[in-house]
Amino acid sequence: MDTKTIMEVSNEEARLLGQMRSNPQFEEHLRGLLDCAMAEHLGQAGADEVEERAVKHSRGIGLAAIHGWARQTEEQGARQLLREEPSARLRKKKTRK
Fold first, then answer.
1. What digits encode the pLDDT tens for the residues 14-24?
2. 2 within domain boundaries
3. N or C: which end of the chain has fewer CB within 10 A?
4. Of 22, 14, 53, which Cα lies nearest the Cα of 35?
5. What is the pLDDT of residue 42?
6. pLDDT tens digits for range 64-77
7. Domain contains 6
8. Which residues contact 45 (CB under 8 A, 6 or more apart)?
């Protein structure tokens, strides 16, 4: 594949890239999953190790997706509440560290 073909990005690829950039945890686990697939192919890891890593990253992708969905749903609900009740005040939940 030549460089020009590699550099061309379809609308769908650009959308996917944008989604990954907006969720760094998702991107991190997706990269890990892709690395796992290449590690076995290149003989850098055994099948059991690759499977273990792949499962870990697949779970991470799932959690990142759920957290992203929850965050978007919460933000959408807050915007809707403010539209319906302009006098409403929103407070952010304190998070533990």
1. 898 888 888 88
2. no
3. C
4. 53
5. 67
6. 889 888 988 998 99
7. no
8. 36, 39, 53
Name the strand (E) or helix (H) holding 67: helix 47-84
Domain span at 66: 15-84
- 19-62 residue pLDDT tens: 888 888 888 888 888 888 887 666 777 888 888 888 999 999 99
d(CA 33, CA 39): 10
Q: Are 49 and 8 in contact (CB under 8 A)?
A: no
Q: What distance in Å separates the CA atoms of residue 49 and residue 26, rounded to the nearest whole number?
A: 21
3 confidence band (pLDDT: 50, 70, 90) = low
Compute the radius of gyration of the chain from its Cα atoms: 19
DSSP 29-45: HHHHHHHHHHHHHTTSS
Q: Which amino acid is at 64?
A: A
Amino acid residing at 89: R
Domain-embedded: residue 92: no
